[in-house]
Specification:
- It is a single chain.
- The chain is 27% helix and 23% strand.
- By secondary structure, the protein is an alpha/beta fold.
- The strands form 2 sheets. Strands 1, 2, 3, 4, 5, 6, 7 and 8 form an 8-stranded mixed β-sheet that branches. Strands 9-10-11-12-13 form a 5-stranded mixed β-sheet, with no helix packed on it.
- Strand 9 and strand 10 form a beta hairpin.
- The longest helix has 24 residues.
């Protein structure tokens, strides 16, 4: 992996993407042979209910000072009540020890398997939360843990906030939209770190999304895309989504335009692997 993680001086710390939902996290930097610097994000999202607060994923440990600063500004003295890691990889759960230490009453909820093995000193801070059971946060805001149709690990979960209709999709819906398709990281230029997809210069091309799909989600080469994408479609019908918030990549506010590109990318990954196996 050629990505160098760093915190930049001019990185935009936070953005409120919907009332009470804040986009945080940091970016890694990669120096291209041309001298151009490209970024790859590891995002986290802070939900501010009237009664409770909740963090979706934790961000990468290298970015914790940036995340802490943003959270301190947003929370303004309030406590963090819940954290929902989508799965036990560093960009998604690596800051949990720091968060547990900073917020003594913080509970980690969701699919809690294996986390006690990774963080035995915090074993009593994890709670299983069933899928499709809304957790009220106050003011009409509620968070629902969802089974992930597109998984990185077996325990990967998604999430949904119902009042603002935001779906949190972990490693799904990532795509390259800068540079040649020769890396597994969703890349963008500095200054594009907190842009919605409609604010980016252009839509991704299928080959950009397909390369990332084959690299980061190798199993897509062995499973008909229609099977799991139809599950995604049904999930979005059940949980209507104005915004799609991935951990890696820009927040999507034009799903009707992005979804056909992603479907074509997953289909390409499957067909490429089938052709290779027949060769």
């Amino acid at each position: 992996m050629s990505l160098k993680l760093s915190v930049t001086d001019n990185y935009p710390i936070k953005r409120e993407i919907a009332p009470g939902i804040h986009w945080l996290g940091g970016c890694g930097e990669r120096l291209e042979p041309s001298g151009e610097i490209l970024h790859s994000s590891a995002s986290t999202f802070l939900l501010m209910g009237d009664e409770k607060t909740l963090l979706v994923d934790t961000g990468a440990p290298i970015h914790y000072p940036l995340i802490r600063q943003g959270m301190d500004e947003i929370l303004a003295g309030r406590q963090l009540d819940y954290v929902v890691p989508s799965h036990p990889e560093l960009p998604h759960s690596g800051n949990m020890p720091k968060l547990f230490d900073k917020y003594p009453k913080l509970r980690a909820i969701g699919d809690d398997r294996d986390y006690r093995l990774f963080y035995p000193q915090y074993a009593d801070r994890f709670d299983f939360w069933p899928q499709h059971k809304p957790l009220p946060l106050g003011g009409g805001m509620e968070f629902t843990v969802l089974e992930a149709p597109i998984k990185d690990l077996v325990s990967t979960t998604w999430g949904y906030e119902g009042r603002e209709q935001v779906m949190f999709v972990s490693d799904a819906f990532g795509y390259l939209h800068r540079a040649a398709p020769d890396d597994e990281n969703p890349l963008h230029k500095p200054g594009e770190c907190r842009l919605l997809t409609t604010e980016l210069p252009k839509l991704p091309e299928v080959y950009q999304a397909a390369f990332l799909t084959r690299s980061a989600l190798a199993w897509t080469g062995f499973m008909d895309a229609n099977v799991f994408l139809n599950t995604v479609r049904k999930m979005i019908e059940r949980y209507p989504s104005k915004l799609i918030a991935p951990t890696h990549g820009n927040v999507i506010d034009n799903l009707d335009e992005i979804m056909p590109i992603m479907r074509a990318a997953y289909t390409s990954a499957y067909e490429t692997e089938r052709a290779r196996s027949k060769a």
